[in-house]
Every structure is written in C-alpha cells, then in structure tokens.
Amino acid sequence: MIETPAPDALLKRDRLVVLAGLFGIGALAWGYMVHEARAMANTGVCCCAGMKMSGPDMAAWSPVQIIPLFLMWTEMMVAMMIPSAAPMILMFASVNRKRRADERPFVPTGIFLLGYLAAWTGFSALAAVTQWALHSRALLSPMMASTSPILGGTLLCAAGVFQWTPLKNACLTHCRSPLSFLMTDWREGKSGAFAMGLKHGAYCTGCCWFLMALLFVAGVMNMWWVAIISVLVLLEKAAPKGLWLGRIAGAFLVVWGAWVMVGR
C-alpha cells in the first residue's frame, strides 16, 4: 500500500520547489548581470546592448538600439525584484496547493510570476527609452551614470521625497500584505492568475520605480549600487519596520541630493 504524503508535507515540498525555482531564476539573472558589468568595465562594451559605452565613441545611439537597452533593463529588473517578490509568489503557491487538495480549480504559479514580470517589463521599456534620451543629450557618462549634478541631485531628492508620499505608502502596504492581497484580489483561471500577478507587479512598480531611477545616479551597471537598491527594496517589503526604514532612507536621499546639487 502506497502512503499519500500529508497535506503539510505537500505544502512544504511545493514551497521548496517554488523557492528553488525563484532562486535559480534570480541567480541566473544576477550571474549574467555581473558578467555584463565586468565585460563592460574591461572592454567598455555592454555585451547585451552591443554598444560601446566608453572611450571616444560617444556618438548618438540609433532608435533601434532601444531594443538591446530594453533587454538589459528587463534582465536587471528580474535580478533585482525576484527576491522581494518571493513572499507573494510563495503565498500564491500555498493557496493554490490548498485549492488543489480541496479539488478546486488551480493554476501553475508560473503564470502569476509571468504577470508580475510583465509589469516590470513595461517599466524596463520606459527605462530604456529614458536612457536613450539621456545619452542623446550627453547627460550620462560612459558607465551610464549622470554627468549632471542637477540631474543627479534632482533624482536623489525626488526619490527621497517620494518615500514619504501616500502613494508610496499605499503601494508598499499592498506589497507587504501577500495574504490580504490574494484574499481581496483573487481571480479564477489562468487569465485571472496573470491579472493578479500583473496587478501586484503594478503595485510593486509604483512602490519602487523612483528607487530604480536612482540607477542613473551612480551607474546603471554599477553592481554595488544595484545591490544596495535591491537590499533596500527587500527590507522595505519584508522587514518588520520596513515602512520607516524606507522613510529614513528617503530623508538620507534628500540630504544627499541637496549636497550633490549645492555642495559641489
């Protein structure tokens, strides 16, 4: 006689499978991003974008080059946002496992993840166009960092102020409450799961987009800067005092921005 695993054991196994999948996706994205950063530092060429970023070749990029820029930003958003999205994705997987055990309709967790990433893909498109525009106006250095104290300081101050706004608070509240989100926004079927992922991704984008804009301050491919922003986003969503941690960071960003604009 074959014993059927207990429901708790199945839930634990599913969580491990989903967590391993998320870790694998995140590790691949981070690994490739670090590889790109090293190649760019050594050769001055961004491999995924196929463009020379340093040296005398600072000519305007053609509109077609927005496509590789978009791919670069998409890869970066996957690496940066998968860790902070893990609690919501694991909660979705747990709810689905319980529905399956109760012989109710369920959908693969990957569909929810695709919806989430679709929201950040939209942000990546806007970021790529923004980077292309800033480069065309010579406002970015060869390493994709702001060359203008006014631009850099304004981005820092604006991101810091945004950390204290009601919009930031509302979006972050949804991101910090996975179960509440699923209970109030549950949709049936594959299209429903994708829509839920897209909506959660929209809240997440609304919460973090200004922080992502700070990549233009210290360098889009500056791995230390990328890591710091990723950790801040994760702590905002997962730490017990994440809201206040974000506000403290916001105050620091305003001071830093003022120093960049005035102190220099």
Question: Low-confidence stretches at least 5 residues in length (pLDDT < 50)?
Answer: 1-5, 53-57
For the secondary structure, the number of strands is 2
Strand percentage: under 5%
The neighbouring-strand order within the major sheet is 1-2
The best one-word shape is globular
Number of domains: 1
What's the alpha carbon Rg, rounded to whole Å?
20 Å
How many helix segments? Answer: 10
Which structural class fits the helix and strand makeup?
A: mainly alpha
Largest sheet composition: 2 strands, antiparallel
Q: Ends: how far apart?
A: 77 Å
Helix-strand pattern: HEEHHHHHHHHH
Average pLDDT over all residues: 83
- Residue share in helix: over 70%
